[in-house]
Specification:
single chain, about 180 residues, alpha/beta, Leucine Aminopeptidase, subunit E, domain 1, seven-stranded mixed β-sheet, 6 helices, about 40% helix
């Protein structure tokens, strides 16, 4: 289910979707990782479960990945071609500030640009075990996406629940 609003050009390129990130047919999906590359919980776990162990093996091979850095791996059995691992936290299950979400979003976008990726899908970065509120995460994510939106064909914001989808939609629509 896609939410559309006639809110201008950036709204056309930023799409809010309720659904499963692992089923997105895009060039890359973003994993809000930890620095070790271990994919044991949250979004990372679901990415590994759907795409296969190769994703975690490749992420761990490139670890440690600091907050403010990102690495690219194959996407295994996913529809996406790549997974961008952008740590929001150093250790698994850490509480984090919104600044980490901003840094992870920025570096994921930069790595995508560097690799010619034009379609990318983000989950709610830091909104699970990281403890960042949906509205706060959506705000910093959309702020960073808008700065680089001209380099992408489409950026998807994917929420599994209505509250996250609503937060993405409100921020996308209101901060034009």
């Amino acid at each position: 289910m896609e939410h559309e609003t006639p809110a201008g050009k950036s709204a056309e390129k930023i799409k809010v979707v309720k659904g499963d990130l692992t089923k997105m047919d895009v060039q890359a999906i973003v994993n809000p990782a930890n620095s070790s590359g271990v994919m044991g919980g949250g979004v990372a776990y679901y990415i590994k479960r759907a795409g296969g162990e190769i994703i975690e093996q490749e992420a761990r091979r490139q670890a440690p990945i600091q907050v403010g850095e990102a690495v690219l791996t194959p996407a295994g059995k996913l529809k996406a071609r790549h997974v961008i691992h952008a740590p929001t936290m150093k250790y698994p299950a850490m509480r984090i500030p919104a600044a980490n979400v901003r840094a992870a979003t920025r570096t994921a976008l930069d790595l995508a640009i560097k690799n010619g990726i034009k379609t990318i899908a983000f989950p709610g970065m830091g909104t699970g075990v990281g403890g960042v509120g949906y509205k706060e995460a959506a705000k910093v994510m959309v702020d960073e996406i808008r700065k680089k939106l001209d380099r992408f064909d489409v950026v998807y914001l994917v929420g599994i629940d209505n509250d996250l989808v609503d937060a993405f939609e409100k921020i996308r629509s209101n901060s034009q």
